[in-house]
Amino acid sequence: MKGVLAALVLLTSFGPTPAVRGESIVPAADRIDDRAAKLALAEQLSLREETRAEARSIYIAWVAAHPADAEAIIALARLETWTGRGAEAVARLELPAPQGTLTPGARAIFAEGFMQAGRLADAARIYDELLAAETSPGAGLLLAAGNARSYAGRPAEALPFYRRAVEAAPADAVARRNLGLALAWTGAGA
Amino acid sequence: MTRTQNLKFSISALLVGLIPTLAAPPPPAAPPPPVVPLSALETISDDQARIELARVLSYAKRYDEALQFYGQALAARPADNALRVEYGQVLGWSGRTAEAEALLLGIPPADLTPAAAVYLADLLLAGKKFDESAALYRRSLAVNPGDGAARFKLARVLAWGKHYDESLGEYRVLLAALPTDVQVRRHYAQTLGWAGRADEAAREWRPTLPAGATP
After folding, report:
1. Angle at A128 between CA A125 and CA A131, to 5 degrees
2. How far apart are CA A45 and CA A82, in angstroms?
3. Which of A96, A117, A181, A187 is most buried, by CB atoms within 10 Å?
4. How far is B122 from B214, CA to CA, in rounded Å?
């Protein structure tokens, strides 16, 4: 009831005219432009499996028209990894625009793309770089760095990463399982 | 022409000659300036004169001078909270925001004008004091519920403080009054996204985009 009353007061105070004239009560510095709105829509659509195809179409159309928009390219690459298109994610991130602005988050997407594309050595290299930049890396990153070795058939190299992952998150079931497997495969747990 | 006729003519001629003179008399002398009795003048105290001067100087953005006069007036009226509110706002406008914040925080909230409450809330936002800011925006809105700018600020600060449901409620009040304000709807959509309500967020983003913007 209070909300309705406040809306009525607002209505009598402003009426619909500001927006009709293209104006807004939102200060200029806080306005969200069409680009941000479009990418935000794509991001929300990315979050649900049923709407990811539409999100991908929006990103692809935008990136085609704006090939220097690194943020959009990185968002598209992330979506590609979510839909198992690792090779496409890598191809997009290898473009000049995103290469100039790869944040740690974008580098993690890059590494995931390499993993999915089977380029495990490249993935391991990026995970190592990310780990080197962290003073206390999380279990997820340590696990991914271990997986890049383990999936390449080098479980002995994965062991120290899995051990650190379990130390960082003792309750993490995946970390514990992967450490157990690596120990079994290498005979180190015997 | 007889003598009588001559006399009549002369009088007529004289009258005719006088007519223009009668129609446009010479302008009267300017009246002397009115003498207003001193008893009729509003008595302006020295303090009030200082305050008015301080205001004028602040409007002219001559903040340092304004603050000097406000300071003198406040020294004479230390308990005048309305004056302290003005002083605090001018302190902020002059860039001395920390002092402004401290001063305005020292004033009982009931004594803050709606504008001062909004101003203090804006200052507190710099320190990410979201809850305190929200309370002040609400205080202002209780007096001026039609202040859309203040309600927008309240909606945003509630979202920043992760009070998404309350924030969305304020956005809905705004949108009920301003259904075609694209910017308000975009902020509403953004907050829906932050709240994890992806479907609703997407639904609100769509109509804000130019026609044909999505595939």
Report:
1. 155
2. 12
3. A117
4. 36
A48 to B198: CB separation less than 8 angstroms, yes or no = yes
- Rg (alpha carbons) of chain B, rounded to whole number: 34
B20, pLDDT greater than 60: no
Residue A16: per-residue pLDDT:
42
pTM recorded for the entire structure: 0.74
Helices B182-194 & B164-177 angle (0-180, nearest 10): 160
Residues making up chain A, counted from first to last: 190
Q: Do B182 and A43 touch (CB under 8 A)?
A: no
Residue of B125, B154, B181, B194 for testing the chain A interface, max A β-carbons within 10 Å? B181
Contact criterion met (CB < 8 Å) for B181 and A41: no
Q: Is residue A148 a contact partner of residue A164, using CB atoms and an 8 Å limit? A: no
Helix (H) / strand (E) containing B151: helix B148-160
Position B109 confidence tier, pLDDT thresholds 50, 70, 90: confident
Residues of B in contact with A19 (CB under 8 A): 178-182
Identify which of A6, A25, A37 has the shortest CB distance to residue B152.
A25
Phi-psi region of B50 (alpha: psi -120 to 50; beta: other; left: phi over 0): alpha
Q: Which of A2, A12, A44 to mutate to test the interface with B (most CBs of B within 10 A)?
A: A44
Q: Burial code of B107-143, b = ≥16 C-beta within 10 A, e = fewer?
A: beeeebebebbbbbbbbbbeeebbebbbbbbbbbbee
Structure confidence at residue A19 (pLDDT):
42
In B84-200, where do the E strands start and end?
none
pLDDT digits (tens, 9 = 90+) for B192-206: 999 999 999 999 999
Percentage of chain B exceeding pLDDT 90: 69
Q: Residue A18 has what pLDDT?
A: 42
Task: Please write the tens of the pLDDT for every residue from B117-150.
Answer: 999 999 999 889 999 999 999 999 999 999 999 9
Distance (Å) from the C-alpha of residue A189 to the closest C-alpha of chain B? 43
